[in-house]
Amino acid sequence: MQVFEFTLLERVAGRHYQEAVAAYLQALRREGDLLARPHRVLDRRRRKALSVAFGGLDDEELHLWASVAYRNAILELLGDLKAFAGHLRRQAG
Questions:
Q1: What confidence score (pLDDT) does residue 33 get?
Q2: CA 3 to chain CA centroid, nearest Å
Q3: What is the gyration radius of the CA atoms in the chain, in angstroms?
Q4: Cα gap 8→89, rounded to integer Å
Q5: Whole-prediction pTM value?
Q6: Which residues are within 8 A (CB) of 72 and not within 5 positions of it... i.e. 6 or more apart?
């Protein structure tokens, strides 16, 4: 389901979604672990671009799609679906 969601959002928001994922991936690599404050990664310009790409979002909706971009970056960092599934299980437990 996650991969479907990532692909769908990438097709809808295009480069703006890709830039958000790239920003989270860069922050993850810099921190070397999950981010304590992922909501602070996207600057105002990136948040506005992501909002506009989805037709204009309120803050709550923008937070939701940004969190999906963050999970997408975690998948890219981990490198495969099995590792990502393990991460999701650990987060749920």
A1: 85
A2: 12
A3: 13
A4: 23
A5: 0.88
A6: 2, 6, 9, 21, 24
Q: How far apart are CA 47 and CA 90, in angstroms?
A: 29
Residue corresponding to tokens 């987060």? 91
Q: Is 17 strand, coil or helix?
A: helix
* Averaged confidence pLDDT in the chain: 92
Per-residue pLDDT tens over the stretch 32-52: 889 999 999 999 999 999 999
CA distance 40 to 18: 17
Q: Is the pLDDT of residue 93 over 90?
A: no
Enter the DSSP assignment of 41: S
**Whole-angstrom distance, CA of residue 81 vs CA of residue 63:** 24
- Cβ atoms within 10 A of the Cβ of 19, count? 18
Q: Which amino acid is residue 84, in one-letter code?
A: F
At residue 46, what are phi and psi to the nearest 5 degrees?
-70, -40
